[in-house]
Write the C-alpha cells for this entry.
Amino acid sequence: MHFTRMSSYDTAEVPVIVRGDGAYVWDAHGRKYLDALGGLFVSQLGHGRTDLAEAAAKQAAQLAFFPLWSYAHPTAIELAAKLASHAPGDLNRVFFTSGGGEAVESAWKLAKNYFKLVGKPMKHKVISRAIAYHGTTHGALSITGLPGLKAPFEPLVPSTFRVPNTNIYRAPAFLEGADGTVDPEVFGRWAADQIAVAIENEGPETVAAVFLEPVQNAGGCFPPPPGYFQRVREICDQYDVLLVSDEVICAYGRLGYMFGAERYGYQPDIITSAKGITSGYAPLGAMIASDRVYEPFAHGTETFLHGYTFGGHPVSTAVALKNFEIFEEEKVLEGVRENEDAFRGTLAKLLDLPIVGDVRGDGFFYGIELVKDKATKETFDEDESERLLRGFLSKALYDAGLYCRADDRGDPVIQLSPPLICGQEHFDEMEQKLRAVLTEAAGLL
Ligand SMILES: Cc1ncc(COP(=O)(O)O)c(C=O)c1O
C-alpha cells in the first residue's frame, strides 16, 4: 500500500472503506466515520453524489478517451477556459495532468524550458521550503523538503534548495520582541527574505523557480504571515524567478476561494493543482501558467515536449465541470467563508487541553500541534512520537469514528481537511471526538 508500514497489518486488519454519503464513510463492517480529511484533501463536495457520478457516466458513454496530444475534446476545452477565467491575473494557459505530483513535475520542466527559450539557459534550480511536501516523482520529491521521505531514493534530481517555512509557532528566538512574542509581519518579512538569501547564495542566474503552498500542509498548516507573499513576489520580480503556487490542496474551495493566491492577494506565475478539482470523483490535475510563460512556446517550431496519456481525461474534465457547476449552484465557496470562523472557534476550544500546543489554519484546513509541555512548547522525542501517533492516536481516532491524520513529518500534528459541505454539527463532532481521544492520549504520557 502507499506510504504504509506493511508489517502493521501482520496482525491488525486493513480498514476497508466501502461506501460514502456526505461527510461520512462506512467500512466493511458497517461502522460509520466522519471523514475529517476529505479522503486525502480531496472530497470537497463529500461522498455519494449521484450528480457527479452521472456526469462521469454520461461522458464515458459519449467519449471515454481521447488524448490532448495535438487533439482536444470539448470538456477539456471548456474546463481550461473556466480555470483560466478564475485564475488570478494573466494565468490563462492550462496544462492538464493526472494528479498533483505530475502538475509539480510539469511546472519545474516548464520553468526550465521557458528560461532556455528566453535566453537564460542557466536558470534551472528550485527553491522550496523545509518540511513541505510536493509529491513523489523524482522531480517533485526533489522539491519536497522532507529528508526522511527522500533518503531511500537518493540521489534525486539535483538543484533544489530549502528555505524556512512560515511556522510562526516555532519562529526563531532572535525574532522575538521585548515582550517575548514574535510580530507576524516581522516574521513574514524575515521568512520571505530567506528566499532572497537562497537565490543570492545559488546565483540568481541559476535559479528558475520558487515552489510554495499558500498554506503549507506538511508540518501542520502554516498560513502565510501578513505581507509574506507580497515580499516573495517582489523578490521573484527582482531576480526574475518564477513563483509557483503549489495549490494541490489549497485550490478549489479549501480556503474559501478558487485559488489560495486569491485569498492571500498575490500573483503567481504558475499554479499547480489537483485533488479537489473533481471532488475525487475522477483523477485530474492542472498546471496553470501565465501568458508570459506561455509566450515563447507560441512561435515557430517550439513545443513543450511533455505530456501524460491520461492528462485531461474526458471523464475527469467532465466531472470537474460538474463539480464547479455545483460549487456555484450551492454557493460552496461562500459556505466555507461563512463557516470558517465557526470551524476555527470550535477547534480552538481544544486549546484548553495540556497536550494541544497550537491550532492553526484557514478556511476548512487545520493542523493541531501536539506538545509535551505547553509552556515551553517542548515536543516529543522520536520514541514518544512513535508511541503517541502510531501506537495510539491514529487507531484511537479511527476507533472513535473520526477519520483524520496524525502526522509526524514535522512536529506531531493532527490534520483536518473536511468536505466543504460540513457545518457546525460536524465541527462539534470533530471537537468532541478529538477531545476524548487527546485527553486519553495525555494520560498515557
Ligand atoms: C502540496 C502538494 N503538492 C503535490 C502533491 C502531490 O499530489 P499527488 O499525490 O496527486 O501526486 C500533494 C499531495 O498531497 C500536495 O499536498
